[in-house]
Design brief:
This protein is mainly α. The chain has 17 helices and no strands. Helix 1 packs antiparallel against helix 2 and helix 3 crosses helix 4.
């Protein structure tokens, strides 16, 4: 695990180094300084992602797909998303190795997530840490297509604030081109703008608990019957109940903490809080539908910005610092358990293509 925390530390240091550029040309140069900081901060994650070998439980499955779909056009395999299949075929026909596919997906994920962090986070170093502490970076080494979809959805939030529904829809369509599950993020365009007070939030959660069994039956009896992933999902091992409870506890804790600190008249605060409520709702069904936890990532990933936003609203400077320390300790411990002890993403031992 030490290699990942080293990369996390180097990324945070890169953020500060990038911000040391002397301002010469006013606003224009400040923009360039931001870009330089982003590139330097993202570089350590790009390097460790691109040169990895056999890291992530799905790594070799993707490698087999690369040569199978590339060579046969997908004949004899289940139907995969259009953009994913197109990229595999194109890269294979160009004569490049599978590692170039790893490089491409790593670049997409890392840069889109960092563009999101630099745009929305009031405390960029904390958001970089949470990308590791909440284990999302580790998942990007494993469930590659879905995490690329998550990154595209994450970046699309800017178009909600810019009131560009067509561009937002195009971004979701592109994300679905990597993994169809990204369609679950489309309602965020409307959810982001809603006023949901604590009474409505409780009502939503209670309603989901009451109709949970009905939702599960609908998913199994209808949705999965007409999906290319039917066999994969139905044969997937059930998520252990205790892991489902951990996920629910973490997401509810983040929501409750942020609810009392976010500014309800601020559309950004309210929007990210509503997305977190979506993560709580999905967590309520985690453990009942196999692999549903992966759908939760679409709504939970924005939490890397929600927490800094919430803490940033604390007026007392000392209390604000204490809360940052508490968050760092809590999610460092969480990551050590989920990825260090349980090795959920099979992210270690870390190996490179040079070994």
């Amino acid at each position: 695990m030490w290699i990942y925390w080293l990369v996390c530390g180097l990324s945070i240091i890169g953020f500060y180094i990038g911000n040391k550029v002397t301002i010469v040309y006013g606003r224009k140069y400040r923009f360039n300084r931001r870009n330089k900081s982003l590139i330097i901060a993202a570089a350590p994650l790009l390097v460790i992602s691109i040169i990895r070998y056999g890291v992530g439980s799905d790594y070799f499955e993707y490698e087999k797909l690369y040569y199978l779909i590339g060579a046969t056009g997908g004949a004899g395999t289940k139907e995969y998303e259009y953009l994913f299949s197109f990229i595999l075929k194109a890269m294979y026909n160009m004569g490049v190795s599978f590692q170039w596919f790893i490089a491409l997906t790593s670049i997409i994920f890392v840069f889109l997530v960092y563009l999101f962090i630099y745009r929305f986070s009031p405390q960029i170093p904390i958001s970089i840490f949470l990308l590791f502490g909440m284990c999302f970076f580790f998942q990007s080494l494993n469930i590659i297509r879905q995490m690329v979809g998550c990154a595209i959805c994450l970046y699309s939030i800017r178009f909600i604030e810019e009131k560009k529904p067509i561009v937002f829809s195009i971004m979701i369509a592109i994300a679905c081109g990597f993994h169809i599950s990204a369609i679950i993020f489309f309602p965020v365009y409307f959810l982001y703008k809603m006023h949901i007070d604590w009474k409505k939030a409780i009502a939503i959660i209670v309603f989901i608990v009451v109709v949970r069994e009905i939702i599960i039956h609908i998913v199994y009896d209808f949705a999965l019957e007409y999906s290319a992933y039917t066999g994969y999902v139905k044969n997937a091992p059930e998520v252990q109940g205790k892991n489902g409870y951990v996920s629910l506890f973490i997401n509810l804790l983040i929501y409750l903490f942020a609810y009392f600190l976010t500014q309800k008249n601020n559309i950004r605060d309210r929007g990210f809080l509503n997305i977190q409520l979506g993560a709580c709702v999905l967590s309520l069904m985690n453990g009942y539908i196999p692999l549903l936890n992966r759908l939760r990532f679409y709504y939970a990933l924005p939490g890397i910005v929600l927490l800094p936003i919430a803490i940033g609203n604390i007026n007392n400077k000392n209390l604000r610092r204490i809360m940052y320390v508490v968050v760092v300790i809590m999610f460092f411990a969480y990551c050590l358990y989920i990825e260090g002890y349980m090795n959920q993403s099979a992210s270690h031992p870390y190996m490179t293509v040079f070994e």
